[in-house]
Each structure stands twice: as structure tokens, then as C-alpha cells.
Amino acid sequence: MGKPSRRINKVLIANRGEIAVRVARTLREMDIVPVAVYSDVDRIAPHVRACYEAYPIGPAPAPQSYLRGDAVIEAAKKAGADAIHPGYGFLSENAAFVEAVEAAGLIFIGPSANAMRVMGSKTAARNKMKAAGVPCVPGSEGAIDNVEEVKKVADQMGYPVVLKASAGGGGKGMRLVHDVSEMDSAFRSARSEAKNAFGDDTVYIEKAIINPHHVEIQVFGGNDGKAVWLGERECSMQRRHQKVIEETPSLAINEEVRCKMGEVACRAAEAVNYVGAGTIEFLTDSDMNFYFLEMNTRLQVEHPVTELCCGVDLVEGQVRVAQGEPLPWKQEDIVRTGHAIEVRLYAEDPSKNFMPAPGHIDELILPHGPGIRVDCGVASGYDVPQHYDPMIAKMCAWAEDRDGARRRLIRALSETAVKGITTNRLFLRRLLELNEFVAGKYHTGSIAEMMAAGDAAPSDEILDAGVIAAAVNRYRRDSRSTRREPQSQSSSGTLWRSHGWRRGGRA
User: Fold this and answer.
1) Strands (DSSP E) along 388-472, which ranges?
2) Does some domain include residue 116?
3) What is the mean pLDDT of residues 187-208?
4) 309 and 161: one domain?
5) Bridge partners of residue 437, in order along the sequence
6) Is 502 helix (H, G, I), strand (E, B) or coil?
């Protein structure tokens, strides 16, 4: 069943940070009024200033604010909004929230609750995809609730295997098991982590694909039940199953495989009558065989690289189909050009096991120039809260070829400064200069291998200490040199020295 035909004039953005700012920009360009919600610590956050109206929804902890569907819907009613855009994270894949939004007479800008439920459960999604003829990684037909059964299935398919939480993603509730001796502890820890993260300790088992590539296809479904695909994204530069760098196109597949993956992804979306932007994630092996991993029933963090290479606005497309309009594009309209790479700039300390590093930003300097896109959710003078994901910005570069995009992104990072807190900026530069990344011969375990070898960049904090020490050393050397060397002053008042110059007598 398609979305109702109804003009959207005002949208409440049920999110915060860079994604809320990004959605607000498109809404303003469409002459739609963007409305923000905020927790107590986000009262003056950039996403609030990016909207025309803003409403408080509770204290800082997400369960008391951004995860409160009732508070979000009440704010939308107060604002007189027609629709709610969920962004990603928080309530974006909550089927019960979708139903509550629609029961309140509002439009949810995203897929149906049914599509979310089917694709949100990994076991249900696997079964649905198998029925639709989508290739899946060999694994159990459903959830497994005891370790003896897990061992039996693992013995049949052969080690190594992966235990996965049925209800979630992001690497939580996932354990790689190399042999039977590891299974008991892996099973217990996977279930415990799944329970804590998702409230559901259900797990299932899959055959592990060693050193795979993580390649995802951007799909977009229309109200007529048909879907198009907008290229792929290579997401194999990961740390603990969390994406760090994304790029398009992928070097791990050829055009023939790319088109096959796109066709299969559309088949998967159409199998659940998917409407709007979604992502079908695949694992590929060294022979370019690909297998369905999961579907993200929302806009992805890394969607800007697709927009840069396809010349589309996915958020605008979401709004249009939510209004009941037909798909904004036909498959033949999708033309991909050039290469785009995205990195995620975080307030975290790579030298301290990537611990979050919230705090006050004294000054924020962001890059500009041709081919650079920065989606940012912070500003100078802003406090990065400890309560949420510490992402500062997504930084993207586009160029006609991959090396041009890579070099452009390195330049952009070199022009970036976040003063007052520690970030992963230097770590990202190191990854972009890593031999494996430069050659395009990396996989999902490449960052772990680099870290194990001790080949990681220092944190901003360590670099700042080095810069200060070098500056002090230079000052002392210059002071000694000034006392020793005679100076001659020209009529212009410039003092010349053997190692430089100073005007007006000040260094």
C-alpha cells in the first residue's frame, strides 16, 4: 500500500546532530518548514538553529528524549507538522513508532512498519530473501537458543562461523568463532550483548567469510512497488564492525557483478514493498561471489557519497514519495560519475582505544574548496555531549578518479581543526595514506591488522603536545640567536636576521 497523496508543508525532524542539519537544508530548499526537537543539553545545538521552530522533549539521556516516541509525536502536533523525518539511529527503524506516527494522523517519511519488521529481524529477513531468490550466506534457518544446537550446526557447515544477534546491527551481539573450544563463551557473550543492546538475546549462526568486502547497494522504492538502485558503496574499512571510510564505486567488484548486485537489491526491496531510501548490504568474497547480509530500512550515514556521484538528493526523494508522488528517477536516469570518499570525524582518542572524548570545542575550522562536502553537527563554542554518538562531521571528497578524491580528502583533513577536544582526524589521514587503501586492496580486517602492527597515527592531543614542544624549542633557539647576532635596521623598520625577518621589531 502506497503513501497517501498529501502535500507536506512542515516536517518535524526526530533527530539531532549532522543528520538533522542535513535534512533541514533540503526541506528549506523545498519550501518546507523544518522543525527541530532537542534535549536539555541540545538547547542551542546547531541542528536547533538550522530549523525555523524547535521544541524540548526531555533530559539529556536518549531514552528520556530522542527515543521517546510519544514526546516526539506530541511536539509534532504542537508544531502543526504534517510529517516526521527520523534521520538515522534513534527511532528511525522502530516499527511501533511508525504505527504511532500514522495513528496520530502524521506522515512518516520512510518505509512501512511491516517492511521494517520483516527486514529488521535478521532471521526473518534471511528467510524472506531466500524466498525471493536473493543469495544468502550459509547459516541456520532461524534462531538458535542453546549452545549444543549451535555446535551441531557449526560442525555441519564447518568453522570458522559467526554468531549474530537477530534483532540488531552495528556489530553488537556478533562473535567470530574459529573452533568448538571458543563456542561456549562466544555464545554466552553474544546473547548477553544482544540482550543489553536490543532487549532480545536471540542469535543465529552463519558461515564466516574470511577477509570479505562489505559492499552495499543504495535502493529507492516507489509507491508502485518498484525500486531502482543508485550504485554501490564500499564499506570495508571498519573497526569492530563499525564503518570508518566509505567510497563509491567499489574496487572489489566489476561492472557485471555491480549490475547483478543492483538487480538483486531491487528484487529484495520489492519483496517487502519497500518505499523510500534503503540499503541492501552484501558480503563479497575474493571470487566476487556476493551474499545478502541485511537491509537498513532508513537513510544511511554514508549516503552523501552516493549523492555526489549520482547527482541526486535522496532526502528530497524521500519527501516526494512520502507525499504520494511517483519515483523521482527511472533506472536509466541514474548515471554515476567520478569517485567519492567519506570519512567520519569523531570526538574520540585513537591512542586510548578510541575512547569517546566529549568536551568543549574552542574553535572549529572546516575545509572548503572544489569537490568537498562537509555535513557537520557542531560549531565553535559548542559542547560535544557525552550522552550521544560523538560524531563531529562527515567529510566527503569527489573527484573524477579515485586517487584524486583520496588526495582531495587528505587535503581537506589537513585544513581541519577542532580545538579544545581530541579527535580521530590524524587517524583518518593515516588510513587514507595506508598502502592497502591507496592500492584499493583492503578488506574488513585491514584496520585491525594495522592496529595490531602498531601502525596507527597519534591522537590530536599527542600531536598538539609535540607542536607546543617544537614551538618552545624554536623560541628558545631564536632568543639565543637574537642575543648573539648583530642586527641592521633598514629605513623601512624591518629587522633582518640570518634565519628570518620581523617587522616593527617583533618576532
Assistant:
1) 391-399, 417-419
2) no
3) 88
4) no
5) none
6) strand
Q: In Å, what is the CA distance from 424 to each residue of 178, 377, 390, 459?
A: 31, 16, 11, 7
**402 carries an active-site annotation:** no
CATH number at residue 309: 3.30.470.20
- Domain shared by 321 and 286, yes or no: yes
Q: What domain range is 75 assigned to?
A: 10-109
Rounded to whole angstroms, the Cα distance separating 99 from 92 reads 12
Cα angle 22, 320, 90 (rounded to 5 degrees) comes to: 45
Q: What's the grid cell of residue 191?
A: 546473547
| Boundary (domain end) residue, out of 92, 109, 126 | 109
**pLDDT digit string, tens, across residues 289-324:** 999 989 999 999 999 999 999 999 999 999 999 999
Rounded to whole angstroms, how far apart are CA atoms 426 and 457? 6
Is the whole model's pTM more than 0.90, yes or no? Answer: no
497 and 394, same domain (yes or no): no
**Phi, psi dihedral angles at 157 (to 5 degrees):** -90, -20
Last residue of a domain, one of 207, 227, 257: 207
Q: What values do phi and psi take at 386, rounded to 5? A: -85, -5
Q: Which of 16, 22, 191, 298 is catalytic?
A: 298
What whole-number distance in Å separates Cα of residue 224 and Cα of residue 233? Answer: 26
CB atoms inside a 10 Å sphere around CB 476: 10
For residues 184 and 146, what is the distance between their CA atoms, to the nearest angstrom? 10
Alpha carbon dihedral 105, 110, 113, 118, in 10-degree steps, equals 170
Residues 479 and 442 occupy one common structural domain: no
**DSSP H stretches of helix in 108-254:** 113-120, 122-131, 147-157, 183-198
Based on the domain organization, do 177 and 237 belong to the same domain? no
Distance CA 381, CA 49 (A): 14
C-alpha cell at 17: 546532530
Bridge partners (DSSP) of residue 245 are 237, 343
- Other Cβ atoms less than 10 A from the Cβ of 369: the count is 10
Q: What is the pLDDT of residue 170?
A: 66
375-390 per-position pLDDT tens digit: 999 999 999 999 999 9
- Note whether 314 and 277 are within 8 A (CB): yes
Q: What is the CATH number of the domain that holds 187?
A: 3.30.1490.20
Q: Are 43 and 97 within one domain?
A: yes
Which bin fits 425, alpha (ψ -120 to 50), beta or left (φ > 0)? alpha
- Decide: 233 and 250 in contact? Cβ < 8 Å: yes
| Helices and strands in the chain, H and E counts | 16, 25
Please check whether residues 343 and 313 belong to one and the same domain: yes
Whether residue 249 has a cis bond before it, omega within 30° of 0: yes
Q: Are residues 323 and 392 in the same domain?
A: yes
